[in-house]
């Protein structure tokens, strides 16, 4: 689709046909999304731009309605967590095409070629843009005027004076106070021999400015007026001291557009970290803007000047041809002379490598027509400057820069390697430029050669050196300006070896009070060695982190740096300990340090929000603790994380990473008990991941270790896990043997809650075997114990298990009562995973009693939760239940699809009982179609499996069309 917003908002389909006009609000929403196409636009920003500063209460709901309108019109709008995104190519949005064309025109030296490109850009305009959103229309109109001015300049250079008059006549009427347009119109009229009309333009302008603003015309307009009076247009004196523009300059389109649109003036502070390309950007922008400042373009590299007050002023004054004998010795007088030289002139000044505002305050011109571009690694405190912050390049921009430097086909031959090189360079322009220079000097090297060399963090900075360019030396230049505490903080952050740190951990890391720690880190932020992100979080670029870690290992005493890390480790442990709680009965509670477990130690939403943000840091702290030899602490934090986060939200990757790192550490120091604990926990991880054979091996290894250690409780917990694995695999005999042994041990040890876990498992197996009376007795005993020890999660599972027995006996009222109780408990616990299983149980009773609509709503919601949590067993269970629902409703095609998907998962998980149950349902689907042969094959295989397993279904009629009632927790 094509989107046109430079005028009345229009949408055209791929054939070029116009889509029917959209309502005004929907059109404005589309315009906002189109201007940021490909990016997520936050909901609050959409509401603010479309409805204004005081939106109606129903604005969010209205926004959803208008988004639906756009989608119905075929507009590809996607919903994201933070807002909405227009999934379109920028080349299909006229505003983006316009910006691209004007940027390309700025690179063309020949005025005739430049005018052609500008003509293409201006032809895209059809009227006033994004009507009704002034905050967007204003900047777009400013960009249009800047393009018109450049087009007029090109025409004037080509002697096309009449064309310029035609181009500007209407625009001058639309923008009566735009002096730059009137300057060009006067030049065109004078050049066309229409001197009287040119004089009238000046007088009209003067009258407007005096009446409207109380000011006289600017010096450029007055100088032009005098020239027209004299019958000749003065040629401007051009002084261009800018360094050569970067030929392969890449990216920064938005920043360039912001700087070059309209008529930039005053001081623009271009800030960014070392190596981010501030100087290249400033020089490139200055070349783009040079024509607008005809009285000179000056450049001063403050890094290269001696640290003497006034040195930069000397350079600048000489650049304006001020004789040395006329330059005063007093600094204030020298600054006054500099400002006087700029009066009435339009000069562009680039001040490169500035440490702070105080360093350049006397260099800033007082003349309103001048522009100063400052590059600095520090943030300014002067609010009168306009800040323009540069970040690293996007991956695509970094690869484009590498391609431009190489100038050959090596990037195209291996684009994946190029992307990886860019990533390992942290998308930092300096680093990418260095790697490009190294490859350019070695034409026989493929791009992949540098990938292998850069992957080793310990040697990465050694690779990022080429001639006089080096990332390490660039960072060290920044560090020299910092005090001792800031440098120590820099090294401590690097030694932590994680890119992010919440402000709350800063005092522990630095061993300082909160205010002092914040002050020190803010100095690193000001030096652009750290960034502040999110809710007061500090972030360090990967290459900066590697450098900081290098310095910590080279300069800090080993005791000091280990102590700093240990303080962070202790703080993380304390925070996580406050969030641990009881989990599902299979999860072993092994470590005494966990202390008292609760079902609600911290509000669920608050805890989830904290863990979702801090999970990468917590994983890294465990891995770093293991690496540095804090084996016991690594194990303890890893285990606490299972009970506080990993086990509650199925965070399998973090669970595995932390436990494998901690396991290596405790094995290295010979801590056998913690080794057994970690092996047992890894068994639980694989059990929850539905990798039952692997889980059984870990439980067996853990149990053997506990036996050798004489740890009866550990042995019992491992037996509980092994028993539950055997139950899922339908190995009912071994399951009962393990669970009974576990219960005996735990009862002897006085562990009531542990014994209840065993009872729950035993009752579940008895239900699978059809021993309903025993199952009810066992599960009720488990329920009573869980309630007595205050385990709400365990109570919910036992109650649900009792309901499953009643459902198997077709006692639907009793089953529904138990399922409702279990579901209510789980909802109060805010446990979405358990909620999927209690919801499935309740929905299945409703399915049995003909309440299809209610069952469907509950099942679909649970299915989405299971998918989000990555629970394969739960997904298969819910798909099977939905398949049963469609089977009961006579919707055989849908039933077959869902049951087939469930069957595939049961086969992947190697669960024969569930395969048999689903085959029985598929047989009913085939029978419903009259395909007796297919039905018989399904039922025959199911009957054989039930008989081999000895499950309760072995005694039931195999051709029953309603499904079984056994369910796994």
UniProtKB/TrEMBL annotation:
UniProt record similarity statement: Belongs to the AfsR/DnrI/RedD regulatory family.
GO MF annotation list: ADP binding; DNA binding
OmpR/PhoB-type domain mapped to chain residues: 1-88
One of the GO BP terms on file: regulation of DNA-templated transcription
Record-linked InterPro entries: AfsR-DnrI-RedD_regulator, BTAD, OmpR/PhoB-type_DNA-bd, P-loop_NTPase, Sig_transdc_resp-reg_C-effctor, TPR-like_helical_dom_sf, TPR_rpt, WH-like_DNA-bd_sf
Keyword Transcription found: yes
PROSITE patterns in the record: OMPR_PHOB
Ranges of the DNA-binding region feature: 1-88
Name of this chain's protein: DNA-binding SARP family transcriptional activator
Keyword vocabulary terms for this entry: DNA-binding, Transcription, Transcription regulation
Alphabetized SMART domains for the sequence: BTAD (SM01043), TPR (SM00028), Trans_reg_C (SM00862)
Organism of provenance: Umezawaea tangerina
